[in-house]
TrEMBL record:
Belongs to the DEAD box helicase family. Keywords: ATP-binding, Helicase, Hydrolase, Nucleotide-binding. It comes from the Bacteria. CDD domains: DEADc, SF2_C_DEAD. InterPro entries: DEAD/DEAH_box_helicase_dom, DEAD/DEAH_RhlB, DEAD_box_RNA_helicase, Helicase_ATP-bd, Helicase_C-like, P-loop_NTPase, RNA_helicase_DEAD_Q_motif. Residues 404-432, 442-454 have a biased composition (Basic and acidic residues). Residues 1-29 form the DEAD-box RNA helicase Q domain. Residues 489-499 have a biased composition (Basic residues). It comes from Sphingomonas hankyongi. Residues 218-378 form the Helicase C-terminal domain. GO terms for molecular function: helicase activity. This is DEAD/DEAH box helicase.
């Protein structure tokens, strides 16, 4: 069915034509007419079937038809997403779909300066895509209000509960007007989400175009039984043997993802990691390199398992099986998108057999067991001798300066060379108070003076020579400053009256 028969306005049809979208997916055919009528909606569909367009297209149509403008600090439509990457992707889709409409779109999430988020919502927005944490921060700062909200959308609602957003969701729903349109979308629908939908949806239209937790049809799934210490060797052999365009590898932990990157780097395979410990700039750069195929391998935690639409992902490798079986469905859904075909390979250790059975029970299909490649034992022993690449902090973008002292020394910048630099390079000699202690008043280093045979300006022995000479009788003995054994003369203590000598004590 084409989008023209769904009742969308001409600006939206023009935007879809510019993106070469002509035929609607099953979830779009069922959801768009229901949302256009203003009804609440509960949508269930497997990942990669176009849920974003299913709720964004009719919502933009309704916002444009109302012909109202948002007030400063208010929004008309709010889309909640569990991760930063998904929020940025939804906002980009909204801007593409509404390019021929005079609708403002903004996105806010953590990892960016708070002042930037405040500026984003200051003038008011027609569509705001946000993560729950940053949204509540702006509400607490009174920089954002939800009193004028018309449409509320929860995308990947089941993951929001898994990530512990239930309390944030309850608070956000309590701040929006009771008279609104609410849309719930997810790939899976556990019992907790069903109860939440029944509480916040009013007479919703339910759309379930595919069975719950069904994997994509065009994904060729296989599992390889391997020991846990040999997984890195198996991954390295696979990437060296297969000519893949883009390979997405899922690790269970953040530390494990970084370790895989270092091992692959030692084997000469370029890869990047993305997880919660990475800064927003690092995460965006890693996705951009992966999207453009500059770095064909991306190691990720489950932060990239939901909603991230990267075209051309040919292989998804589950380096570690997920502890929650539903996550397997979302992971392998990163491939075989938009009608393409893909392959999903899982590495299963002995202690992960129970997780594999849970996945097969959930998806109601038996995953084919693939054998280990030929010569795996010998190749694994050789790869075990490779030492992982050392941890390296990312270079500063300004001039690519080394980030740590060890990096500076590795680049040949020794401490002796750094000490030679003046504190104020724009001055000829620098201020006397800012000179290094190794320089005299003329700006010359004492080490250089000694090399030239000259005497240093500071000589402790000069005091001993002066003290050893003849002194007038009674000149210093009375004051107790004369030291017959040489050394610096003793000085009087010049402190505050009524206080004992020595360092000042902290006052109560």
């Amino acid at each position: 069915m084409s989008f023209i028969s769904l009742g969308l306005s001409k600006p939206l049809l023009d935007a879809l034509a510019a993106k070469d979208y002509s035929q609607a997916t099953p979830i779009q055919r069922e959801a768009i007419p229901a949302v256009l009528t203003g009804r609440d909606l509960l949508g269930i569909a497997q990942t990669g079937t176009g849920k974003t367009a299913a709720f964004m297209l009719p919502s933009l149509d309704r916002l444009a038809a109302a012909k109202t403008f948002p007030k400063p600090g208010h929004v008309r439509m709010l889309v909640l997403a569990p991760t930063r990457e998904l929020a940025a992707q939804i906002a980009a889709s909204a801007q593409a779909y509404g390019r021929f409409m005079r609708l403002s779109v903004g996105v806010i999430f953590g990892g960016v300066p708070n002042s930037k988020s405040v500026r984003t919502v200051a003038r008011g927005l027609d569509v705001l895509v946000a993560t729950p944490g940053r949204l509540l921060d702006l509400i607490d700062q009174r920089a954002l209000s939800l009193r004028e909200l018309e449409i509320l959308v929860l995308d990947e609602a089941d993951q929001m509960l898994d990530l512990g957003f239930i309390h944030a969701l309850k608070r956000i729903v309590s701040l929006v007007p009771p008279k609104r349109q609410t849309l719930f979308f997810s790939a899976t629908m556990p019992k907790a989400i069903k109860e939440l939908a029944d509480r916040y949806l009013s007479n919703p239209a339910e759309v379930a175009v595919t069975p719950v937790a069904k994997t994509a049809d065009r994904v060729d799934q296989k599992v390889v039984l391997v020991n846990q210490p040999e997984k890195t060797a198996l991954l390295t052999m696979f990437l060296q043997a297969e000519k893949t365009e883009r390979t997405l590898v899922f690790s269970r932990t953040k530390h494990g993802a970084d370790k895989i990157v270092r091992m692959l780097e030692a084997a000469g395979i370029a890869s990047n990691a993305i997880h919660g410990n990475k800064s927003q700039a690092q995460r965006e750069r890693a996705i951009a390199d992966f999207r453009s195929a500059r770095v064909p391998v991306l190691i990720a935690t489950d932060i990239a398992a939901r909603g991230i639409d990267i075209p051309g992902v040919s292989h998804v490798i589950n380096y570690d099986l997920p502890e929650v079986a539903e996550q397997y469905v979302h992971r392998i859904g990163r491939t075989a998108r938009a009608g393409a075909e893909g392959k999903a390979i899982a590495f299963c250790a002995h202690d992960e057999r129970g997780l594999l059975r849970d996945i097969e029970r959930l998806t109601r299909q038996k995953i084919e067991v693939a054998p280990l490649p030929e010569g795996f034992v010998q190749a694994a022993e050789a790869l075990k001798r490779l030492k992982p690449a050392p941890k390296q902090e990312e270079r500063s973008q300004r001039g690519h300066r080394p980030a740590t002292k060890s990096d500076r020394r590795a680049d040949g910048q020794r401490r002796e060379q750094r000490n030679d630099r003046q504190r104020h390079p724009h001055r000829a000699d620098g201020h006397a108070a800012h000179r290094s202690g190794a320089q005299d008043r003329n700006g010359q280093r004492r080490d250089d003076q000694r090399k030239e045979g000259a005497r240093s300006s500071y000589r402790p022995e000069a005091y001993r020579e002066a003290d050893a000479g003849p002194r007038p009788a009674g000149a210093n003995e009375a004051r107790g400053n004369f030291r017959p054994d040489g050394g610096q003369p003793k000085r009087k203590f010049h402190g505050r009256r009524g206080r004992p000598g020595g360092p000042r004590r902290a006052q109560g």
